[in-house]
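for the recovery benchmark. tokens below, seq after
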């Protein structure tokens, strides 16, 4: 029972590490998420757990950015433009974060 709790907390801690490192390394578009994913994947302890830990910050950031865009009260066409840009950014960021998590878990 304790081991199961430690595994789930490892994924949450790894996701938080990835989220913080991604925010700190935002100036490095592809390398930053790979580094964050690598460190978080090492912390998660397995490939599957690393992928789950990589998806959590991606979903959280997408929800947060969507909320910020929606709360600005811009015209609808600005929302469409922001949504397309957000989707492209998150696809690149999530892919790099997952790649880093897989590499970190395997090494």
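predicted aa per position
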């Amino acid at each position: 029972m304790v081991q199961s709790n430690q595994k789930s907390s490892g994924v949450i801690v790894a996701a938080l590490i990835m989220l913080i490192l991604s925010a700190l390394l935002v100036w490095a578009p592809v390398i930053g998420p790979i580094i964050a994913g690598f460190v978080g994947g090492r912390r998660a302890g397995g490939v599957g757990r690393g992928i789950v830990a990589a998806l959590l910050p991606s979903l959280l950031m997408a929800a947060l950015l969507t909320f910020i865009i929606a709360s600005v009260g811009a015209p609808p066409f600005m929302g469409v433009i922001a949504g397309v840009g957000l989707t492209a950014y998150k696809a690149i960021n999530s892919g790099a974060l997952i790649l880093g998590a897989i590499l970190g878990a395997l090494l």
